[in-house]
Amino acid sequence: MSNIDPKVLRHKVENINTLPTVPAVLKRLSVVIEKPRITLVEISAFISNDPALTTKVLKMVNSAIYGFPGRIASVSHATMLLGLNVIKGLLLGVSVFELMQKTMNGLYEHSLGCAIASRIIAQKKGVKEPEEVSVAGLLHDIGKVILALEYSTEYQAAMNEAQEKGISIFDAEYIQFNATHANVGSWLAEKWRFPRNLIEVIEFHHRPALAKTAPLETAIVHMADLLVRARGFGFAGENFVPEVNTIAYELLKLSETDIKDVLKEMEDNMESAEDLS
Fold first, then answer.
1. How many CB atoms lie within 10 A of CB 149?
2. What three-state secondary structure class fits 240?
3. pTM for the full model?
4. DSSP state of 119
5. CA–CA separation, 115 and 127 (whole Å)
6. What pLDDT, on the 0 to 100 scale, is given for residue 272?
7. How far apart are CA 3 and CA 1, in angstroms?
8. Of 109, 106, 189, 204, which Cα lies nearest the Cα of 146?
9. Which residues contact 13 (CB under 8 A, 6 or more apart)?
C-alpha cells in the first residue's frame, strides 16, 4: 500500500500555484478563476490579453465540441454565449492541453472525445446546459495530469501496475496514492469554485451511483468515457474498458440506436476536433 498521505496530497493539489511542475499560464489562470466574485468582463480581459490563449479559446469554442461551428469571432461573444462556468472550464481545458500531451500521450484526444460524446448524450437526454456537461467531459481526467506531473515516477508505476495486473488505472492509483485522479480533480474543481454539479461529475465519473446533486450528468460523462475508450479514441492511461455501471445505464436508458447515433456523431466530430492542438 502507498505511503502517501492523502491529506498531504490534497494540500499540494490545492496549492497548485506553488508547484514547480505547473507551467506559468496555469498558475496565472488558477489565480484568476479562484477569485470569489470573478466577472465575465474580467475573464474576457484575461483571455484577450494573451493572444495565444485567445486563439486557443476561439478554436475550441468554434470546434465540434460545442456545436457553434465557425460562428464565434470574439472572446466577449464566447464568454457571453457560454457563461462563466463553461468558459472557466474551457480555459482550464486549453491550458492543461499541452500538459496532457506531455504527461500522457493520447489523454487529450480521450478528453476531447469524452467532451463531444457528453454533449451529444446530454442533448439526447434534454439536459438544459449541454455545454456544462461537455466541459465536465473535457475535464473529467484533469486529476491524472496533476498526478503525472507532480509524481511522475509513481504515476508511471501505477500505469504499469494497471497494465500488468489487468486492473483499472483508478484502482492502481488508489494502491499507489491512497487517492485517485477523480479525488484530485474534484479537489481542484472545488478550489477553483466550480459549481457543485461539475465537482461531482469529476469526483464520481467512475462511481456514478454515488452522485447526489448531478446523477444524470455524472451518468452521462461515465457513459461517454466508456464509449470513447471502447471506440479507441486516445488513451486514458490503460487498455482496460470497465463495465458500464448498472445504475448509470438504467438512468440513461439509451437504446442501441441512440448509442450508434452517439458513436457516429462522435466520429464525425472527432475528425474536426483533432486539429485543435
1. 20
2. coil
3. 0.89
4. H
5. 15
6. 67
7. 7
8. 189
9. 146, 184, 187, 188, 191
The C-alpha cell 488558477 sits at 30
Q: Torsion over CA of 171, 12, 148 and 182, rounded to 10 degrees? A: 40
pLDDT of residue 276: 61
Query: pLDDT class for 192, splitting at 50, 70, 90?
Result: confident
Question: In this structure, which amino acid lies at residue 219?
Answer: A
3-state secondary structure of 16: helix
Percent helix, strand and coil across the chain, each to the nearest 5? 70, 0, 30
Count the Cβ atoms, other than its own, within 10 Å of residue 181.
Answer: 27
**Residue 242 carries which DSSP code?**
P
The residue type at 24: A
Report the alpha-carbon distance of residue 172 to residue 150 in Å, rounded.
17
Q: Give residues with Cβ within 8 angstroms of 256, minimum separation 6.
A: none
Higher pLDDT, 34 or 259: 259
DSSP 219-230: HHHHHHHHHHHH
Amino acid at 133: V
C-alpha to C-alpha distances, 47 to 28, 43, 150, nearest whole angstrom: 11, 6, 26
| Mean pLDDT on 254-262 | 93
Identity of residue 121? I
Cell 464565434, located at residue = 72
Q: How far apart are CA 245 and CA 172, in angstroms?
A: 19
Burial of 112 by CB count in 10 Å (0-12 exposed, 13-18 middle, 19+ buried)?
buried
Instruction: Please give the C-alpha separations between residue 37 and each of 33, 143, 168, 170, 191, in angstroms, as whole numbers.
Output: 9, 25, 39, 34, 14
Q: Which amino acid is at 157?
A: A
Beta-carbon contacts of residue 31 (< 8 Å; ≥ 6 apart): 17
